[in-house]
Amino acid sequence: MTDNDIWRLSASEIANRTRAGDLSVEDSITASITRMNIANPALNAVVEDLSAEALERARALDKARADGAAPGPLQGVPVTIKINVDQAGHASSNGVTALKDLIAPADAPLVANLQNAGAVVIGRTNTPEFSFRADTDNPLFGRTHNPWGKHISPGGSSGGAGAAVMAGIGALAHGNDIGGSLRFPAAANGAVTVKPGLGRVPAYNPSQSAERGILAQSMSVQGLLTRNAADLHLSMPTLIAPDPRDPFHVPMPWHGAPIEGPIKVAFTKNTFGYDLHPEVEAALDTARNALLDAGYIVEEVEPPNVFDAGRTGYRALMGEVWSLMKKDVDAAGSQTVRDIFAVYFQEFPPFLETELLQMMAKRTYYARKWSLFLEQYPLVLTPFLPQPFFKPDRDTEGAEGVHEVLGCAVYSYAINYMGLPAGCVPSRLADLPQGPQPINVQIVARRWREDLAVDACAAIESRVGRMCDLLWQKME
What we know:
hydrolase, 476 residues, alpha/beta, eleven-stranded mixed beta sheet, Amidase_dom
């Protein structure tokens, strides 16, 4: 492998080589920066280039290693951080022009955890305004494009992260997810991710002036987008390291106890009246067959009502947004995002006042139903979206557009509402009239068992291949 090809290495390969002394951190980071300079101008995925400080940090890590310091588990792995999370000395703008000078006084827990493990931040990635769209565009930095082509949205709100990691800009990309913001970009770009469950990754922004609403706290999680499942097993133990600034973080190990015998997987194609596209059905069948081939027991059976949980959960979240966030959107948001929020409130009529409190309480009812179901089936294989990923700006096209983008995505936000973990992995490359695009499926897991979801993602990936390899052939 030449120096020009180092960027193609997975996070696991980079860490193995740097820890063994076969690759310097400086060479790893230099290669990633070179790739960023080549790929990013067409994508606008990274909107703050941190090359200079990344190289300075890389040299410091190499010097410390030469002086006898032990290498970290993510030694020399290039990462990107989403612009809605604090990184000391940089703006946590959240895609909002009014926040462009909100400079973080210190690192958020996940940034500290990654850097303490030897990772190097090479840039900060784009997000839509307020990180509240499933597409990525804003007046401050502009539109992010999908590396598969401009016929597909890059997803959101971690669209910059998904586009960057799949284009080879960094081996790991940080993102977060309140209703699908890790899984939407994974599905759009063909990346692999796991949405952690409630309490799994410590979260806190030192720049914040007030605490978030209770549903925002309980539905939103921090995570990573990767090009292969093995990199999640490598990196997530670092991400979940405890931090006292998150008093509700649960310090459990990444790997849980082994499950005796073959793992049972519940499998559903139910899309609750929304049309199931043949390419999505084919992706589901491929994933099911891959799991069967890997030794899982897969049974077609309906889990507890996802549609009811998802719609209730998102209407509750919209009630909290209406009460706590709407005035900020009205004051600082563009006309585009204000119009989108107006349609959100139509698609998901907000629960308010006493009814909001009742629906927040009902969250436990749905979670209990699923916990009991997951005792019998530790994993559930589901669609992520019923249709292939939508085009850019589809959510600006009124009620019909928002319905296609978010209204039908009940398998996404239902899982946030119940605080469960869920993996998202590509299992098919669809050849559609508008162009090729990946199709991802979702794998829900028992509470605290993100590792089981990642294992299943790896089993699917081992039989269908890495989507990044096909993308890079196309990009070349």
